[in-house]
Amino acid sequence: MCRWTVTQGAPVAWSSSCLCCRPPSFLLSLTFLLLLLLLRPSPSSSLSLSPLPPSPSPPPPPPPPPRWPSDSVRDHNAPGGTQPHFLVQHPSSSSSPPPLPALSSARLPRATNVSSSSATVVGRHVRSSYNHLQGDVRRRKLFSYQKFFLRIDKKGKVNGTKSEDDPYSVLEIKSVDVGVVAIRGLSSNYYLAISKKGELYGARDFGPDCRLIERIEENKYNTYASAVWRNKKKHMFVGLSANGKPMRGKKTRRKNTATHFLPIRKISQIQKSLVKYTPTHKPI
């Protein structure tokens, strides 16, 4: 029912339960609200319409741990009913490998061609073809390239002689260190020595001047240089001049044949050495 009343000459519509009897503006607003409710998307539909991000692929399963044998493995086929046990050690990835056992000095191989005085030095070998260098003590005659025998007389004077039977030319060569020797006259009991000034003389007692470096040169002759004294950082050698006189160490050089000596064990080797090392020399 819609009731109309007249207020001050204008009709006013009272509200009623009938929607058709209400004013048009109210119906328009109500219709608009209904359309909004109908056209508004629901939360579930919006979630269903939106594209889903691709799900990450699951990581591959870790490889199964290696199956190690048990700590005790029994041999069921062992005769006599005995069941021996074998312990199996599991390798540990975090543990470092066991250190190698250190070789003691007693296990190191020893050179067979090195004298006893130089056996403690590793890597030094005496060539087997040079038999005159083997042994700690050698009795030799030093035959120079100038065809003189080095001699030390009873007064300690050093010079050269061409006599093969001179007793003062018999020398004793003793190894005192690696590559270092001491030369002593057996008859005079003097040591061959080189002073700080390069003078060649015979010393009654063994001292620093008596330490001589022995070296084999390319022509298979030996050179003897002072192991202590040098002249302007150059070695000073034992040398005999063409007249058989001792040379000053300051004037000697390694390549000078006046400083080259051949250790002779027997006098018969002298003629062989003359023919072998001096082609221009005619054998006697």
Question: How would you describe what is shown here?
Answer:
Keywords: Growth factor, Signal. This protein has 284 residues and is an alpha+beta fold. Helices cover 12% and strands 26% of the residues. The chain has a domain at 135-277: Trefoil (Acidic Fibroblast Growth Factor, subunit A). It is built from three helices and 15 strands. A seven-stranded antiparallel sheet has the order 14-13-12-9-8-5-15. A two-stranded antiparallel ribbon has the order 1-2. A two-stranded antiparallel sheet has the order 3-4. A hairpin with a 5-residue loop joins strand 10 (191-194) and strand 11. It is rod-shaped and about 160 Å long. The termini are far apart.
Low-confidence parts, pLDDT < 50 over ≥5 residues? 4-16, 45-49, 71-82, 84-88, 102-130, 274-284
Q: How much helix is in the residues?
A: 10-25%
Q: Supply the CATH class of the domain at 135-277.
A: Mainly Beta
> CATH architecture of the domain at 135-277, please?
Trefoil
- Coarse shape: rod-shaped
CATH topology of the domain at 135-277: Trefoil (Acidic Fibroblast Growth Factor, subunit A)
What is the rounded distance between the termini? 171 Å
What is the H/E order? EEHHEEEEEEEEEEEEEH
Average residue pLDDT: 70
Radius of gyration: 56 Å
Biggest sheet architecture = 7 strands, antiparallel
Instruction: Give, in spatial order, the strands making up the sheet with the most strands.
Output: 14-13-12-9-8-5-15
Counting helices, strands and paired strands, the structural category is alpha+beta
Number of helices in the DSSP assignment: 3
> How many strands in all?
15
The amount of beta strand, in percent, is 25-35%
